[in-house]
Amino acid sequence: MSGTDKTPDGLVIVDKPSGFTSHDVVARIRRLARTRRVGHAGTLDPMATGVLVVGVEKATRLLGHLALTEKEYVATIRLGQTTVTDDAEGTLTSSPGASGVAEAAVLSGIAELTGDIMQVPSAVSAIKVDGKRSYKRVLDGEDVVLAARPVRVSSFSLDGLRPAVAPDGTSVLDASVTVVCSSGTYIRALARDLGASLGTGGHLTSLRRTRVGPYTLASARTLPELEETLTVLPIAEAAAAAFPRWDVSAPDAERLSHGAQLAAPDLGPGPHAVFDPGGRFIALVEGREGRAKSLAVFVG
């Protein structure tokens, strides 16, 4: 991209490295794209790696809707120890061990955490409590217990279970798992709750996000790769991949571009990407009482 080229509206699918915050990645893409208009869909903790969807220019308006899509993770849960953060970055709080836990018990515990469940988010999270981030309250010494919220764990599978010895000498079990879940699900909380159900405690030692909606690691690029070539998925392709497509006539596209509603008796639930006869991405809409209401307009 030359110094006079404008970065196109679209998505950058990043394979986030460990040790970087999501904000760190956004700052890097801002520099590469030479624009401040950059954001991300779905935060990854610094320890975590994998798919982080970054929007550039007009595509930032897609991000709030993309953040609500299904996500997939591979993770390692250490059974036998707990930490203050429910992951390996936090201070150890207990080491009861897990040497006597059978695989059948782990599978039973996983089954209980699959489906539509009520989950208490990790106290060390970005959720606001009376205007202040929960993790900041914990760091200030407060005892924070967040309210349970409904989440959907579509799939929670045990890929492997192996004995290990923690640095403090405790006999633990490391469970390799794959989780497919709704937005707002905390994998750290699944690790905590699995360990609690087994009486051993548990926390995450690794986390890698492999998919956000339709965007997978196969299309993700590392930061060094993006330094070489900033790969931007055009906004029309991004919208067509992530949302049901609705093709409309030129007059209807014109009306939508000015914020008008259209009759849409058969429009299903959730956002739909609207395209004109020339394949131009016009808007995101949702059906309400037989009408299509614009969520965001991307032309004009």
UniProtKB/TrEMBL annotation:
<dbReference type="InterPro" id="IPR014780">
    <property type="entry name" value="tRNA_psdUridine_synth_TruB"/>
</dbReference>
<comment type="function">
    <text>Responsible for synthesis of pseudouridine from uracil-55 in the psi GC loop of transfer RNAs.</text>
</comment>
<feature type="domain" description="tRNA pseudouridylate synthase B C-terminal">
    <location>
        <begin position="188"/>
        <end position="229"/>
    </location>
</feature>
<keyword id="KW-0413">Isomerase</keyword>
<dbReference type="Pfam" id="PF09142">
    <property type="entry name" value="TruB_C"/>
</dbReference>
<dbReference type="GO" id="GO:0160148">
    <property type="term" value="F:tRNA pseudouridine(55) synthase activity"/>
</dbReference>
<dbReference type="InterPro" id="IPR002501">
    <property type="entry name" value="PsdUridine_synth_N"/>
</dbReference>
<dbReference type="InterPro" id="IPR020103">
    <property type="entry name" value="PsdUridine_synth_cat_dom_sf"/>
</dbReference>
<dbReference type="Pfam" id="PF01509">
    <property type="entry name" value="TruB_N"/>
</dbReference>
<feature type="active site" description="Nucleophile">
    <location>
        <position position="45"/>
    </location>
</feature>
<keyword id="KW-0819">tRNA processing</keyword>
<feature type="domain" description="Pseudouridine synthase II N-terminal">
    <location>
        <begin position="30"/>
        <end position="187"/>
    </location>
</feature>
<dbReference type="Pfam" id="PF16198">
    <property type="entry name" value="TruB_C_2"/>
</dbReference>
<feature type="domain" description="tRNA pseudouridine synthase II TruB subfamily 2 C-terminal">
    <location>
        <begin position="243"/>
        <end position="298"/>
    </location>
</feature>
<dbReference type="GO" id="GO:0031119">
    <property type="term" value="P:tRNA pseudouridine synthesis"/>
</dbReference>
<dbReference type="InterPro" id="IPR015225">
    <property type="entry name" value="tRNA_psdUridine_synth_fam2_C"/>
</dbReference>
<dbReference type="GO" id="GO:1990481">
    <property type="term" value="P:mRNA pseudouridine synthesis"/>
</dbReference>
<dbReference type="InterPro" id="IPR015947">
    <property type="entry name" value="PUA-like_sf"/>
</dbReference>
<dbReference type="InterPro" id="IPR032819">
    <property type="entry name" value="TruB_C"/>
</dbReference>
<protein>
    <recommendedName>
        <fullName>tRNA pseudouridine synthase B</fullName>
        <ecNumber>5.4.99.25</ecNumber>
    </recommendedName>
</protein>
<dbReference type="InterPro" id="IPR036974">
    <property type="entry name" value="PUA_sf"/>
</dbReference>
<comment type="similarity">
    <text>Belongs to the pseudouridine synthase TruB family. Type 1 subfamily.</text>
</comment>
<dbReference type="GO" id="GO:0003723">
    <property type="term" value="F:RNA binding"/>
</dbReference>
